[in-house]
Specification:
The complex is a heterotrimer of chains A (about 210), B (about 850) and C (about 450). Chain A is built from eight helices and four strands, in the order ααααβααβββαα. Chain A has about 210 residues and is α+β, with helices and mostly antiparallel strands. Among the domains of chain A are: about 5-70, NADH-quinone oxidoreductase subunit E (Arc Repressor Mutant, subunit A, Orthogonal Bundle); about 75-155, Glutaredoxin, CATH 3.40.30.10. In chain A, strand 3 (about 135) and strand 4 (about 140) form a beta hairpin. In chain A, helix 1 (about 5-15) runs antiparallel to helix 2 (about 25-35) and helix 2 (about 25-35) packs antiparallel against helix 3 (about 40-50). The radius of gyration of chain A is 21 Å and the shape is globular. Chain B is α/β, with parallel strands linked by helices and about 850 residues long. Among the domains of chain B are: about 15-105, Ubiquitin-like (UB roll) (Roll), CATH 3.10.20; about 295-370 and about 520-635 and about 650-690, Rossmann fold (3-Layer(aba) Sandwich), CATH 3.40.50; about 375-515, Dimethylsulfoxide Reductase, domain 2 (3-Layer(aba) Sandwich), CATH 3.40.228.10; about 730-830, Barwin-like endoglucanases, CATH 2.40.40. The two termini of chain B are about 55 Å apart. Chain C is an alpha/beta fold and about 450 residues long. Helix content of chain C is about 40%, strand content about 10%. Chain C has a four-stranded parallel β-sheet with strand order 3-2-1-4, sandwiched between helices. Chain C has a four-stranded mixed β-sheet with strand order 6-5-8-7, with no helix packed on it. In chain C, a hairpin with a 5-residue loop joins strand 5 and strand 6. Classes of the chains: A alpha+beta (about 210), B alpha/beta (about 850), C alpha/beta (about 450). The complex binds flavin mononucleotide, iron/sulfur cluster and FE2/S2 (inorganic) cluster (FES). The site of flavin mononucleotide (FMN) has 23 residues of chain C, from strand 4.
Chain lengths: ~210, ~850, ~450
Amino acid sequence: MSRLTEANVKIAHEIIARYPRPKSALIPLLHLAQEQDGWVSDEAMAHLAELVGVTPAEVRGTCTFYEMFKLHPVGTYMVNVCTNIACQLLGGEELLHHAEKTLGIRPGGTTSDGMFTLEDVECIAACTEAPCMQVNYRYGVRLSTDDFDEIIDDLRAGRTPDKLITANPGDQIPSHGTLGLTRQHLDPDKAAGIVPPEQVTENPVWLTTTKGDS
Amino acid sequence: MTATEPQADEVTDGVPVTIDGVEIMAKKGELLIAAAERHGVYIPRFCYHPRMKPVGMCRMCLVEVDTGRGPGLQPSCMLPVSDGMVVQTESDVAKKAQDGVLEFLLINHPLDCPVCDKGGECPLQDQTVAYGPGESRFVEEKRHFEKPIPISDIVYLDRERCILCDRCTRFAGDVAGDPLIHFQARGNETEVNTFPDEPFSSYFSGNTVQICPVGALTAKPYRFKARPWDLTEIASTATMDSVGSRITVQSSRNEVLRYLGVDSDPVNWGWLSDKERFSFEAWNADARLTGPLVRGDKLGNPTDSGDQLVGASWALALGKAGDALRDVDPEKVIVLGGSRMTTESQYAWAKLAKAVIGTDNVDAQLGDGPAAEVLLSLPRATIDQACAPGGTVLVVGADPKETHGALFLRLRHAAMHDGATILELNPRSSGLSQYAAQSLHALPGELGDVVGALAAGGAAGGCDADAIAAMAEALGAADAVTVVLGSGSLGEDPTVMAQAALRLAEQYPNATFLPALHRANVMGAIDAGLAPGMLPGRRRLAGSTAPDTWGSLPASAGLDAEAMLRKADAGDVEVAILLGCDPLADFPDAALAERAFNKVNHLISVDTHLNLTSTGADIVFPAAASATEVDGTFTNMEGRLSPIARKVTPPGTARPDWMIAAELAAQLADDLGFIDLDELWADFAAASPLHADLSMADIAEGGTEGVLLAGSSISRPPAPNVEMADSSDMRLIVTRKMYDAGTLLTNSPSLVELAAGASASINPAQFASLGFTDGDDVTVRSEVGSITLPVVADAGVPAGAVAIEFNQPNASAASLLDSARTVTTVSLERVS
Amino acid sequence: MATGEYVPHAPGYVDSPGTKVVSSRFGYEDSYTLDRYLATGGYEGLKKALANGPEECHGIVREGTLLGRGGAGFPAGIKWGFCPPEVWPRYLVVNGDESEPGTYKDRLLMELDPHQLIEGCLIACYAIGLSQCFLYVRGEMAIAQQRLADALNEAYEAGYVGKNILGTDFSVDIVLHWGAGAYIVGEETALIESLEGNRGMPRLKPPFFPAAVGLYGQPTIVNNVETLANLPWMLEHGAEAYKELGSETSPGTRMFAVSGHVKRPGVYEVEQGVTTYEDLIYGDDYCQGMRDGHELKMFIPGGGSAPWLFPEHVSLPLEARPVGAAGTMLGSGAIVIMDDSTDAVKACLRVVRFFARESCGKCAPCREGTSWEEKILQRILDGNGRPEDLDLLLDVADNISPGPYPVASFEAEGLDAVPFPPRQTTICPLGPSSVAPITSAIRRFRHEFEAKIGTPVEVTA
Ligand SMILES: Cc1cc2nc3c(=O)[nH]c(=O)nc-3n(C[C@H](O)[C@H](O)[C@H](O)COP(=O)(O)O)c2cc1C
Ligand code: SF4
Ligand code: FES
């Protein structure tokens, strides 16, 4: 949809400054673009290319490698149902079929109101809690079909579903693109300082100065 | 590779490796696949390319390797040899793995060899025929992509055929520095593609077509034109610039269809610029001259006063030319151009002009480079020396990316991968700037001052003292400096470059010079004597005696191109001869050229196509095209001789340039002394000490390396003075682009559209203070002319200057230039 | 203090009996805060390390035989020693990309005890002079990312990370980095590519062992989250105390995620080498046996990449060597239990499909071969199999990972040998991993495949 907003450009520069080489910031910046628009547009990629000093084709090469980056608008909520082996054993596929029916879409599809996009995903690291899914990367575990419907109803009604786990009780489920709700802040006064590798030629001081002396 | 690492070639201690039971001596650090190949064991491969970093992607080159801990499968393209390594390239395990890989590469590959351009020369097809499974075990649906998509103006990509070897993408990123094509998506869906609406516009795109191991990448000029088995080929040399890139010329039914780059270790490493690669189209153009033309009437009858060019017999045209030249005062004959010819033809024309007609007014350069005696007085460098790992190269007044594509790739490699330091002293930023450790932009006319300040310190030419000191320090710290010496800005008198070059030579006695002048065989022309004041073999005319075979020499040293045109403008020239050149479009003072040619009595052109100037000629002789229609040699920027070979017959009655010279001599009741190339060479070798011990056969036997000529002993002239008038106006910088409105490019259908057009670039600060916005049209006015074109802000242009590209379809900067001045100054005015 | 129960605020974690090296704080609801961390011995290991000096600190880790928990089980202390001397800077990259099917323990460690991981990173950096640390967290783990970001902000504020840590000369920045969905990025060289902003395609090693040539071409230590999470305890209690846990060759505890058809699936921290699969599957403190009315049919012993094991193998101890000798691996500690209701073809397809979807596309055998395997298996499951398909499948698998392999112990121990560890026609083991379920399932349950061939079954997906 668009280039980064001015506020996000500021954040982008902060992120870039955390890496010894600007291109390393590409994945976090793609997340930032997705947080802004819900997906990653060509304009955003071209903008990131400028910010880190590579070609848009290189940005696209990186972006398209990673599943989480969406190249087209998706629903406000990504509903990712795990069907990998542990979940498959305990009803993951059935949960997916139920989701297809409830939402009226196939995996990859988006509901006509733009609320939900359904995906059939690989292992999301909650295998003992099968069947499980993520909504915008917040877990729902040991889900019955009723649980699923409850979550969808809550979201449709603008409530935070009890059945989804958040970092702090009561945290909202942010719309698609927002991952952790907190960002790391690197206070320049407290940071050790990030420099390009070619500027480091000597061993870190502590290797020689702190040898058993404190 | 870093500077401290030994180069494979230098290593004398070998590494013993056993391959298929035979012990060989590999070079230290060499990759197994290369070591095996040097010893006659060809390991199949798709992704490996000897000029690029291996990626080990295709897995075709798997072999069984035992380094002491039992045999294991290893990709031989990623594995450096090690002492005592035992390798099985054909064991059951290796074969099974290779067959398996081949099958994997084929399962999704379309079986459309009969309609694929690569069919017949496709490693994948060859491998399959040789070892592949008889029938496919893959019964599933193949992967589908939209059929060939254009990824640039020249190149098409068929993703279904692509085997994802990373060659094109590695070339684009690592070699050309244009990462505009890239892998996209992942796994089984991976594809090569561009960013939407950002095509693979690279000057070097054609190389990807050549190195694609399958038919996924195709180039417009060749698509569907021929089948590989219909092609025959011959080794030759590219003649679009002075790199002398080695090529293979391929043709079918007397039509040249394709050039392929040949890997010449000291020269082009197999790479070509698209201009070198695709401009052969011009040789096949309908506009080729097929017979002589003379003045005539509308009905096509030759008449002395006709206003048309009409076809004529060779006898008639030669007769008329003979009449024009007979009994004329030799001083009133001028000969311009000749850098597109073979060195042999250059010699023939030099001899005709100097020994038969008796004029030294010959110049293969058109006012856009330092004089021959300046160039020849400088110690010469090779491309390898300029690109030496860890070396220091000073680029002065040159933009190799625009004018010497293959050299640019070598320099870029040196800087990016071999630790070389590039320093740049250019009027404005260039294609090398992003790889340069430091770039200084001297204001037009003040280059010599900046060079002087490198020794004397202080600010000069618009560059501040610190920057000059930094460059001086870098130059001082280098063991050896190679100067890549270009033609400079066309907005400057050539003496500016000459002064800078001579000062550099004086200040840095160890510096060597690689001339990167515009025009293809310009160094051949100089070596052959096709330059004012020079004789064949890098000798001054003054003080020399005539070569035995020559009889006589001109009475005095002649004029350079600019002086010749001034003489003509003064009404003092009877006959002007153009050797494959177009001064009206190409001389950096269009108004002078126009006045000059209006005043000469007889204008004779020898060319492959008609152009702006020759359209006004009285007599036009059709020439055979160098590179494909004549035999001979090319002399590159280093002074390296390599063969040019005749592959097809010239159209109509077009003849090699040297033959036309010989026939004109006959018209003048003289004899050049040779009727074939062998005799010509013997005559040349007798006249040129430099070529004395060589034969054309020696040059052909030089293989891809050709034969490098020794230097010259011309004494260094004093650095000329440069007169700069004070002016507060903006100074004009005029640079060359790879694609312009030159004769051959406009006759190459695939390239003609690529000339991007000229714009007036100025420094952003000045741009803002003048109140321009991007894309505004401005009229740029000098004392002699004006042009209108878009204006852009460009941080690569120094304040106080305007940079405009030369000879573009939308505007001719030549009409602004006043060659009487050291620099041309201009004013800018927005067009409302 | 073990409850022997599920911990409600840590879904999946079961607080089993025994010493807890890495999950000791999971029982606290506020386990992830700095306050709780400090109240429970947090940053004591770091202080000890600083007091001992870098070399001694490295020595403790070497002495304690801290085996990598990312899958390969390589001793961390030895890996650290591979950094070429006098090449600076060196980097630490924390592998928190956990995506192996069946695996999750790093996620819990990041969500529930982020400071422990941070302290582990600091100790590693201190010991071998790593001047910057990148914490690469899997993209889909939003909560882990948030908890780590919070924890890092707190730790910076309190002076545990950053400039002059705890008033010493030791300074290091830890930068939190999120992935974006690609299993292959868990492979250490692909992780480095990804961290450089590139497509996560593995580099060939050699020559690029990250410890020598890694991030930006510099020496780089890649360690798993759980590996590093062990360091605070080890430094605080010493190598000897650490070695008292577990077996001689595999000291310490490990986190095992047991999923599938057991009564109480969960993540358990148990001592390595002394506990067996049987203990975990059937023990009352652990999974409490198979679901009622069902028998064990097969199990994945160490993540989706591992060849399967069968009921006769349950007595194997949870230790890399014996499990390796059985022709498979302990890998990432992910155990997936399948009972007799499981369709072997379907299970096989599901695991293969994972590798096909996650192939990076670099090597032809993996890019083309894994999808081909998936297509054949899908066809068989759909009832369109052909008799020749099984041999074809095995041969395609063989071309990705040529076998069989002469593992001496197989015959002697009467074990069902499968090709492992894989010989590779590829750069990394992802493609060859797809071979594990195929050879496991076909060797053991060929009849199930044959039964499907030509017999249409109901298609579910
Ligand atoms: C395909 C593949 C996926 C991997 N995924 C992970 C992973 O998600 N997390 C992890 O820690 N190691 C993973 N590894 C192992 C890493 O390459 C590496 O060995 C490990 O991070 C080293 O850490 P350790 O020595 O602390 O175990 C994977 C390896 C492969 C081949
Ligand atoms: S297009 Fe050709 S050169 Fe490029 S990756 Fe595909 S097969 Fe290789
Ligand atoms: S040629 Fe070696 S892997 Fe492709």
